[in-house]
Amino acid sequence: MKKRHLLAPGPTQVLPEALLAMARPILYHRGPEYEVLLASVREGLKFLFQTKNEVLLFTSSGTGGMEGAVVNTLSPGDRALVIRGGKFGERWGEICEAYGLQPSYIDVEWGRAVEPDLVAAALTADPSIKAVFTTHSESSTGVLHDIEAIARIVGKTPAILIVDAITSVGVVDLPMDAWGVDVVVGGTQKALMIPPGLALCGVSDKAWAMVQRSRLPKFYFNFIAERKSLEKNQNTFTPAVSLVVALHESLAVIRAEGLTALFARHDRLARATRAGVMALGLQLFTERPTPALTTIIAPPGIEAGAIVKRLRAAHGITISGGQAQLKGKIFRLAHLGYADESDVVVCLAALERTLADLGYPVKLGEGIRAAQEVLVQAC
Ligand SMILES: *Cc1c(COP(=O)(O)O)cnc(C)c1O
């Protein structure tokens, strides 16, 4: 018998209450029970996104929400600025190009956060830019970008700021109304503790004004239609009802924990994990880490893929390796969503054993001890 632990940066472990709720007989999505449920989900999402505006909900993975953000705000020929510093930043560019836009790019070295001044310079150089696209928590590198600083810059211009927050909503503070972030895209399989399949889009008043004028083609991901439906506690098309039911459970748990405690929990798990891996002599990949995951450089002579494989085969733990140019070079331990200190301890214990198996010199317990020293402190 082997117990399995899912500690990859998505999908993540599912909340037991959500699993049980999904096992109940399906609700009719045009019936009164579903309407009551959706009304409560709408309130929960506004709380989570820290906005007074409607948070739109689409049945798709997170990327669908990203595509929706592009096609609902822009028109053919519009200028856009895309910040690329990882696989997900690149995705913004790919979506824009798929719709015939020719964005300008700020290319950031993978592992670094964008310098907000570069955004200011790009907007000054081209005042016709209508939208700035960035990632918040870039899960391919483990970097957390400074959205508050970027929002302050973009907020002074007519452009809107569109943020991929798929791995940061529910992990780290992102008060969209207070900071002036215009579109915030989330997904359910990261911090929301439920399976993949729903995309979430928070939209500011400034962005809604652009949505009214947007002329890029769209059909399924139609923000105006979806808002109109939601205001009647409906979805335009048949939603993934069981995921909405699961989301209702997870939002209840998030509300009960409270945002401050939620962010503090993620921060604490991240600090403990980082302390643990550094005590083993390993190097972190970035100096500006997201609290969602820890990205670690594979030690010399050991391929990151071998660590990932052995953790799974020998210890039942699923983590992620690197993508694209980081393949073989880094590995990623996630600690977001339905995660607590037991996950951190289990993961570090198995990592110590794995490294020892692969011939890396470790003293068993050294990583755990450093993590425990963080965990015993009050948060
Ligand atoms: C997971 C993730 C996505 C979305 O991926 P999907 O597979 O479409 O859900 C996008 N951006 C970031 C930063 C992510 O971590």
How would you sum up this structure in a few lines?
This protein has 379 residues and is of the alpha/beta class. It has helices spanning 16-22, 32-49, 62-73, 87-98, 116-125, 147-154, 176-179, 205-213, 223-230, 241-257, 259-279, 304-315, 341-357, 366-375; strands spanning 5-6, 55-59, 79-84, 104-107, 129-135, 137-138, 143-144, 160-164, 183-187, 198-203, 283-284, 293-297, 317-318, 320-321, 330-334. The modification N6-(pyridoxal phosphate)lysine is found at residue 190.
Summary tags:
aminotransferase, 7-stranded mixed β-sheet, 14 helices, single chain, PyrdxlP-dep_Trfase_small, Aspartate Aminotransferase, domain 2, 2 domains, alpha/beta, Aspartate Aminotransferase, domain 1, 379 residues, Aminotransferase, 15 strands, 16% strand, alanine-glyoxylate transaminase activity, PyrdxlP-dep_Trfase_major, binds pyridoxal-5'-phosphate, globular
Give an overview in words.
- The longest helix is centred in the last third of the chain and has 21 residues, at 259-279.
- Strands 2-10-9-8-5-3-4 form a 7-stranded mixed β-sheet, sandwiched between helices.
- The protein contains 14 helices and 15 strands.
- It has 379 residues and is an alpha/beta fold.
- The protein is globular.
- 44% of the residues lie in helices and 16% in strands.
- The two termini are 36 Å apart.
- The model has no long low-confidence stretch (mean pLDDT 97).
- The structure holds pyridoxal-5'-phosphate.
- Pyridoxal-5'-phosphate binds at residues 10, 61-63, 88, 135, 137-139, 164, 166-167, 187, 190, 196.
- Pyridoxal-5'-phosphate is lined by residues 10, 61-63, 88, 135, 137-139, 164, 166-167, 187, 190, 196.
- Belongs to the class-V pyridoxal-phosphate-dependent aminotransferase family.
